[in-house]
Specification:
Length: 76
């Protein structure tokens, strides 16, 4: 059995992402609107970021969303 199939995706709210980056919730939404952080998921009325995406984005030096996507595609 593939281990990846059993992994649960963890999601963070803007508040949690902001706490991780020492930014306000409002600043997180501004960065998202400008395409400077990974794209969030919209679930009903909620906006959430995939935890592993944010952690990888930080590890890659907080690059632009376009660069982040390009790096992800190069890895896969």
């Amino acid at each position: 059995m593939d281990a990846n199939k059993n992994q649960k995706i963890q999601l963070w709210s803007a508040k949690t992402v902001g706490q991780r980056l020492s930014l306000s919730k409002r600043q997180i939404f501004r960065l998202s609107a400008c395409g400077k952080i990974p794209k969030p998921l919209k679930i009903g009325g909620a906006v959430r970021w995939i935890t592993s995406d944010i952690e990888q984005w930080i590890a890659w030096g907080c690059c632009s969303r376009a660069e982040f996507i390009a790096r992800l595609e190069a890895v896969c």
